[in-house]
Request: fold
Amino acid sequence: MDTNEDLAFLKSMVMERRLHLLVKIHAVLRRFGRVNPVPYRDNAESLASNMSKELGNGPDCADCSELIHLLSSPHVKALLSVHDVVARKTYDPELPPMDGDTADEESVRIVSLVKSQEPLGATLKRDGSTGAIVVARVMKGGTADLTGLIHEGDELREVNGVPVENKNPEEILPIMAGTQGEVTFKVIPAAAAKGETSANESKLFVRALFDYDPELDTATPCRAAGLSFKRGDVLEIFGHDDDIWWQARRYGDRSPRAGLIPTRQLQERRVAFQRPKALFKSHKIQKQLTENADYGAITGIHIAGLRRSFRLGRRASRSIEESRWKIREILGECQAPTYLEVAPYCWDATQHHRLVLLVGPRGVGLSELKRRLLLSDPDHFGVAVPYTTREKRKEEEGVEYYFVSRQTFELDIVNHKFIEYGHHSGNYYGISLDSVHKVIAEGKVCLLDVQPHAIQFLHTAEFKPYVVFVKPPSIEKLRFSRRKAKFIATKEQRPTTSFKEEDFEVMIAEAEAMDDQYGHLFQKVLVNCDIVSAFDELRAELRKLEGAEPQWIPVEWTAVPIAETLC
Reply:
């Protein structure tokens, strides 16, 4: 055949429309073959029958009648029947079962990891039933986790060619410790590791409410894998299905590797066993407090107004009855604060400011810190004006006090409108929620110094309180910095008096009792060794509340899921 004729024939074949359609069909089939499509339904025939019945019971219309006629056609019924048969049939090849010994041999895997100065991020243990050395945990963010080559439950056979069948986990560590660079493991994968990986775990953030040092924890399965933290640290929890040990990472840490921490259940049990120690400590605190009391002067309150502080007199503050009340409160309401689930929160100008609560023992400087904050920016900070039932003198209503009748005050007590209230010299004094709302409505930061038990009353999503615990320094520093300090006197108080040695002891004892009972509610601990430095530190912390850096608040204070909270 002539060459020109061959070329013409080939050209006509290539240009043929049917060939182009076949190529497109082949490409589509190849694509669907790679994704392994599955039928959407395998009951098309029954669906068509049900639809015909529904249309027959409905209103008469031309479209419905036509569709019923089509679905009743023998050809359509046959097509749908064949579709269901094909959809229910599997076309995957069936492989013959493998011999048991061969399966075990092929399941052994050689894993090589490059060892750096950081641990590989896996802990070992001996299986109680088989005696084999298995991987107990894979630490989140460690080398083993990032490579995905070692999984929890994998059985370890060899390390760098050394069999480990008859060794304890403690004997294996020196083998790996003496290796630089590449470490080779011979493992039998766990059954769970051979399958598909599970869905991503939801993120859980908690604020630690206690200090933890794994080096001091004799119960930890691996001290080197433990994570130390301080009260107030925000922790990201991984693998929180374990009832005894969680994997966690401090929020903001550069190291991606997680560490082991006790779970909430474990820590609560530990605190329960330590309760007798708290009882002994409480009796010790009670003995430290002086007994010359005149509790009739005032009944357990501290008014949070700027110009009036009703922590009147050291005799009242050292009341033995008040001391016993504090001890009962510590013992009777003591819970086991462990972790608080938190979520990130960013303040913006459309929201009201968070309530700022100052808490601390008498004489620690709460009123002075509040006074300095107010004077530093009176347009930004405000204080709640107290209510009283005493006669009005030359004061201006709403500036120093709100003056109300005794009947009105007692009615507000019954209606739980007071944050704190008390009785002094035959008159009531108290801070009402209405006063707090007035300051907030003015767009200001409301400052309150309150007794610790009032925190729980205000610990709500409405106020989102930021609690600052002001504590005294050591007694040596107290003697140096407070010896010449004076109480700020008003017309209703006794003449100013210098601090005495027993005042320092009571102040420190009260601070310890407050910290033991309510420390889990404090967001900031401020040591007031010097009033100027303490004020500067407090002012800087309050500026952060309005900055771009996210704050961590209890998760129930926000309705936005953690995964959708953007700052």
In short: The chain has five domains: 1-37, 39-57+68-85, 106-194, 204-272, 275-334+343-560.
